Hints:
Elements: H1 7-16, H2 24-34, H3 36-43, E1 48-51, E2 54-57, H4 63-103, H5 137-165, H6 169-178, H7 183-186, H8 192-201, H9 204-213, H10 220-238, H11 271-281, H12 284-304, H13 307-317, H14 323-328
Antiparallel strand pairs: 1-2
Helix pairs in contact: 3-4, 4-9, 4-10, 4-12, 8-10, 10-11
Amino acid sequence: MKEFKTYAEQIYILKERGLTIKDEQRAKEILKKENYYFLINAYKSYFTKNIEGNEQFKKGTLFNEIYTLYSFDKKLRNMILKIILPLENTLKSISAYHIAEKINTSVQYEKIDYFYDIENIFDTRERNYTNIEKENSETKILLGKRRNHLLSLINKIEKKIKKYEKRNSQIKHYLNGYKYVPIWVLFPVLELGFFAEIIETLKIEIKYEISMELNLGENTKTLDRVITIITFFRNISAHNVRTFDFKVNRASLLEKDYYGFNNYDDGKSRLFALIIIFKKLLNEEDFNDFFNTFKNELIKLEKEINSEYLKEIKKAMGLPNNWEDIINK
């Protein structure tokens, strides 16, 4: 079990490990306010090295450099949430519109054909999963997996509706009055991650309409990846996880040729990808507000942190040397 350490002991340990602390009283006040674990342990990796099995700060590293990076990341999370929370509402609203347009009046959950892209397997859209007649064995296996996934998804939708029936007056109103919940009433209360799962299972023509209205282009896989990336960054930002160097899993990478990524791989799954997504989805005023705030905070970071560390930090964000040119093109 880790022993309790006073603020004075925490500062002593940091100095013993090679960290330069010019103003110990200020460092003490920062540790009181921010917590040793979330400040030091969460951000020290860019400033330390291993010497014979012992972790030491690189020579000349300042306490203020770690605090500056921590502060930058804290502000970044707030910036991201300021954009993503209203953007989440827009994504759900546009998606609900196009789903409702295809389904006519409401989502008929028993008609599972609306919740999975199966048109590459079936010629007739309205054919049901149970009508398997002449498909080969490989198609049957794929069909079985999709059917099981979809039935599981529908079951989760029904559970969500029951869960929110007691706490959401609109859902309660529709269930009591109409015996169903329209998609435009359901989507706003869903977690973004579950919303993303539903979008991923939609028929291709519905996803196409959503993607085109969002200015994401004709490739519907881009829509899935964009929503996935937004979801990851929304969740880590909301839970105070280190954000600036977060990397989304490979399955969620933006396409290689998407918006300037032809010759640059690192940014496709990192913060730079999110910035590009903001560029595509936001109006000019909102994006410029985000972009200018981010750039100003990055300039402050550049002034306070050693160039050796800064290079690695910017690489971890996925920022190429010409990142501003790519954004502004």
